Amino acid sequence: MFRKIAIILLAAVMAASVLPACSLSLTPASGADNPAPTIQEAVVKPAKKYEAVALDMNNSKVLLAPGETYFPGLLRVSFKNDQDNALLAILYDVYGRNVYYNNDRKAEAKTLSKLPHISFVLESANPDVAFYEGNRVVGVSEGETVLTIRLVRETQSEVEPGFMDMPVSEAIFVEIAITVAVPITSLSVAEEIIELVVEETAWIEPHIKPIDASSVLLAYESRDESIATVDGNGEIKALAQGETAIIITATDSIFEKKYTAEVLVIVKDPPPTSTYQYPNYGGNSSSGGSSGGSSGSSGSSGSGLSGAQQAEAYAIAAAIVGRHMGESEAVFLASIAREVNAYYNLCRYTTDRDNDPYYDTAYGVFIAKTASCAGAVRAVNLCLSIAGYSYEHVNEWQYSHQWSRVYVASLEQYWVVDGGITGGWGLAAPEPAPYKHPWLG
Fold it and tell me: Which residues constitute the domain of residue 324?
C-alpha cells in the first residue's frame, strides 16, 4: 500500500514539471462552483512604424557643357520610427529602388518591409538650360537652372487596392544647382614664328576653340624681356637682336582648366636703307636686300631708258605726289598706291623683254603701257623717292609677286604699298609680319 502511494506522488510531480508555467492554469473539475480552465493571453508589443523625414545626396552643384549628360547619384532617405525616434538611413536610386545597407539580407528584408513605399519626382526649373529625361540630366544651352528631386510617400488607397502618391507639395525635396557653360577645347596661334627688326611691333593672334567659349582669360609672357616684351593685349615690341618665346595662356575659369601655346620671336637688326635718287628713276635695281628685297636701289637694267624717257616718268610721278602732299602718312601712301594701280590697270601685262623692254620700269607703267608687278613697284618707288621716303623692293628678281616696303615713322610701323594689283585699287596697309603681304599670307 505504501509503495502504491509513492508511485502516485512521483507521477504527479513529473507531470507538473513539464507543463508551461505561464500558459495554462489548472483548476478543479468544472461544475457549478468550479469554472472551466482558461488560457491566459500573452502581452504583444506593437510593431514600429517608420516615416520618411529627410532626403539628401552628395552632389549639390553640377557643371555641364551643352550636350553633356549627368546621372544623379544615390539618394539617402532618413526614416524615423514612432517608438524611440531612432533614425534609419536607406539609400535609393532615382527609380525608388532601395540599395542594401548590410549583409544580412533576411534581417534587412524584415526592416525594409516596415518602411513606407516611396518614389521620386525630378524636375528642372529651366528645361531650356538643362532637362531631366529617363535617369539623366542633359545640358542644353549656356545658363543656370535648379534640378529639384522630390520624395513622394505612397499611401495605401482606401478606394482601390494598390498605392497612390501623396501630393508633391507635401513631399520632402533636395535641390541641385546646375550650370551649363561652353568650355575651351583648344588654343592655337595664327603664327608660331614672328620675325621682327628692332623697334618693330607685332600682335599675337590667338585662336580659341570654340569661339563662343563661356570664360576665356588670356595672359602673355615673354621668356626674355631683354629681346622682346609683350603686353596684356598680345602686342610684341622688339628690343634687341636675338630670339625669345612668348607664352600664351588661356584660362577657363568655369571649368578650371588652362591651355598654353607658344610663339617664337626672332628679332633682327634693322636693314640699311637709302633714298631712290634722280636721275635713276624708273630703272631696275641691281643690289640685293633682306627677304628678297632691295633697299632704295638704283642703277640700269639695260632697258635702254633715255634721259627724256626718265624725265617723262618723273613728271607723272611728281604730279601724283603733288596732288597728295599734306595728307597724313597713311592716307598719302594709300593715294600713291591707288593712283599707280590705276595706271597699272591700263597696261598690258607682260614679261617679254625682247618685245616689251620697259615692262619692269616706271616708264613702262606711266608711258609705254606695258607692265609687270616689278614695274608697278618701281613706279611706286619713284613717287616715294620724290616724297622723301625710304623703301625696300620686296621679292625683287624673283618670279613672285612684288611690292614696296615702307617705314611709317608716325605710326612706328612698316607698311606694304602695292600698286600692282590687277583689277584692284591698290593697297597700303601695315605688314602682318615682316616682309609679309596682308593679302598673300
Answer: 290-430
Could you give the 3-state DSSP secondary structure of residue 197? Answer: strand
Three cell numbers written together for 288: 640685293
pLDDT digits (tens, 9 = 90+) for 220-270: 999 999 999 999 999 999 999 999 999 999 999 999 999 999 999 999 887
Residues 139 and 71: beta-carbon distance below 8 Å: no
pTM score of the predicted model: 0.46
Does the residue 168 lie in any domain? Answer: yes
What CATH number did the domain enclosing 74 receive?
2.60.40
The C-alpha cell of 274 is what? Answer: 637709302
Is residue 285 in some structural domain? no
Indicate the number of domains in the chain: 3
Q: Of 131, 170, 144, which Cα lies nearest the Cα of 53?
A: 170
Cα–Cα separations (whole angstroms), residue 337 to 59, 273, 314, 374, 419? 65, 21, 16, 14, 5
Please tell me the distance from the alpha carbon of residue 402 to that of residue 397, in angstroms, as a whole number: 9
The CATH number that applies at residue 383 is 3.10.620
Beta bridge partners of 237: 201, 229
Of 193, 183, 207, 185, nearest in space to 262 by CA: 193
Backbone φ, ψ for residue 239 (5° rounding): -115, -40
Q: Are residues 312 and 252 in the same domain?
A: no
- Chain centroid, CA 96 distance in Å: 38
Tell me the one-letter amino acid at 393.
Answer: H
